Amino acid sequence: MQWNQFLLFMMGQCCFSDCQLYEYHYIEEDKNWTEAQRYCREKHTDLATVSNMTDMKRLLNISAGNMGEAWIGLYDQTAGKRKWYWSLPGVEFNESETNWASGEALDTGSENCGFIGKNLTWGDYYCDLKLYFLCYDERNASQELYFIKEMKTWLEAQSYCRQNHTDLASGLNQVQLKQLNNAFQSVRMNTFFGPFRDTWRWSDGSSFSFRHWNLQFNFKEFNSGQSVCHDCTS
């Protein structure tokens, strides 16, 4: 099986592992991803796993002052089956509790991001096309859902929601029918929300859904670099 590797962009959920807290170590040695993985497994636990934005900020803090980019433990299992996740970390995607329209969410094609349709059922869509989107904000109990009337790709929408609210709306508790009706009361049109699917997996076996892609960086020619390892501290 051939694996493509993920690069941590310094510029910018049940698990096989039972680790709850990671201690990160920035390794200032140029290696390819496979070499970095081997080093981290010999000297520490594995390449870094990132489970949420708190981990992401800690990771960036330990790399402060270092130039360039670094490998972490996310790799593309290209021959593997794509799996649906929610954008918001910690929310488990339960296939038996979904509202897909007939014929949607099949494991074919490249429609890997979820939208809510005009009739409030779910569909899958191309992630790089642009739609309005639905954010969730856990800090505001009186208004948890925000219908954003700006055309963005799914990744752009995710970035916007994380910067201005909590995340894209994720999980059945966040997309209840009454709340959706309120959010959609002015405009009813296809709208991105939290579901996405991919073949990316974590090196240590964790199944965290967290992804935080840098939208500007192009690493097609990146073959070697520094890396971040982790040790499990709990």
Automatic annotation (TrEMBL):
Pfam family, one: Lectin_C
Residues of the C-type lectin domain: 24-136, 140-234
Domain of life where this protein originates: Eukaryota
This protein's UniProt keywords: Disulfide bond, Signal
Entry-linked PROSITE patterns: C_TYPE_LECTIN_1, C_TYPE_LECTIN_2
Signal peptide (from-to): 1-19
PANTHER family registered for this protein in UniProt: C-TYPE LECTIN DOMAIN FAMILY 20 MEMBER A-RELATED, C-TYPE LECTIN DOMAIN FAMILY 4 MEMBER K-LIKE-RELATED
Name of the protein this chain belongs to: C-type lectin domain-containing protein
Species name: Xenoophorus captivus
Taxon lineage: Eukaryota, Metazoa, Chordata, Craniata, Vertebrata
